Amino acid sequence: MRLLLIADTHVPQRAKDLPAQLWAAVDAADVVLHAGDWVDVSLLDALEARAARVIGCYGNNDGPPLRERLPEVARAELGGVRFAVIHETGQAAGREARCAARFPDVDVLVFGHSHIPWDTVAPGGLRLLNPGSPTDRRRQPHHTYLTAVVGGGELTELTLHRIGA
């Protein structure tokens, strides 16, 4: 099963739309996981219309229309791997231990908010992934997103993509 992991799209504040490269990744994915800060419900509608499946949560920049349709934490089992998707995890210092304590029943935690790509493993095995942002790189060198393959209880082929590269 092919996964696309995105967060912090901020459409239409930081971009009028997702980059064409990212829409192509949406088309290729079996599941899109979005870790919040959509900003406008029209992007959720567009992703749901185009993607095979969308799993997402709301972020701190998402108002009532998005919060009515999305949870604070989304959960799903995909290919035998237990996922949770959340926007904020707090400061980087202590993140692994804090998230492992909060999500003891999860294999992979996808998060956003910082716009900084992140891939670490907490004590106990929880994998923490932040895809960065495809539209607002802030102090990062590139706009980014992640793809992966999941199956047989394993997450494989995790790739950080740069927009335009």
From TrEMBL:
It comes from the Bacteria. Its EC number is 3.1.4.-. InterPro entries: Calcineurin-like_PHP_lpxH, Metallo-depent_PP-like, Phosphodiesterase_MJ0936/Vps29. Its cofactor is a divalent metal cation. Pfam families: Metallophos_2 (PF12850). One of its GO terms (molecular function) is hydrolase activity. Keywords: Metal-binding. The keyword Metal-binding applies. Residues 1-148 form the Calcineurin-like phosphoesterase domain. It is an enzyme of class 3 (hydrolase). Belongs to the metallophosphoesterase superfamily. YfcE family. This is Phosphoesterase. It comes from Krasilnikovia cinnamomea. The lineage of its organism: Bacteria, Bacillati, Actinomycetota, Actinomycetes, Micromonosporales.
